[in-house]
Amino acid sequence: VFLSLLCFVFLLPFAFAQSGRQQQPPPKQQPPPQQGKRPVTPPVNETRPRRADEAQDDKPLKLKADLVTVITSVTDAAGNQVDDLTQKDFDLYEDGSAQDIAGFYREGQIPLRLIFLFDTSGSIRHRFDFEQRAAAQFFRNVMRPGDQAALMSVSSEAKMELQFTSDVEHLVTTLGQLKPQGATALYDAMIMAARYMRPAEGRHVMVVLSDGTDTVSSSTLAQALSEEQKSDAFFFSVHSTGD
To answer: DSSP letter at 81?
Structure first.
């Protein structure tokens, strides 16, 4: 709620007395009202929504979620994967308070809906071929029957190169056609990707392969993360330089 405070400042007239008394200033003559027009009184407590182009306060981003997806992996003392657990084997706590587990699903029970954001800006030109080969191998290793993936390029603008498909070779071929050029609109791409995957059924995963430096987005990192959370997506970022 925005409170507009209208302050009235009263100016006290100063008079210099020659005989010990303050001289009263002559009354000001008010202009006669114009016929057909009513005097306009400014509003005392006007409130209005803030325009999008007005400056915003740099306040911490606060988000609320009633249902949160949690990924877990369990190993025994020897490091072997334990895959015979049930929902009854888990207790979930948040800030020391026990939480209800609304659902319990194994990895293979829900199909994957993955969107891959591939940085095609000029800043990664010297390692572009390596990143193309790595992304192609990633699709071949990760995709299983029933899974779908989409491919988005990130340059001066975000562009959906290929929508959700289960055809791995189509994904690999599309990767091979990308060329490095332009700047990096990473935050805009994250928002576009999150909104695209939101209505899709399945486990939502967003993978970003980039040097991580946004240069031209009209959106902020806070806005991008907010949209990503609304899409209930797991976010993974890969920096190929290893820095």
So the answer is: B
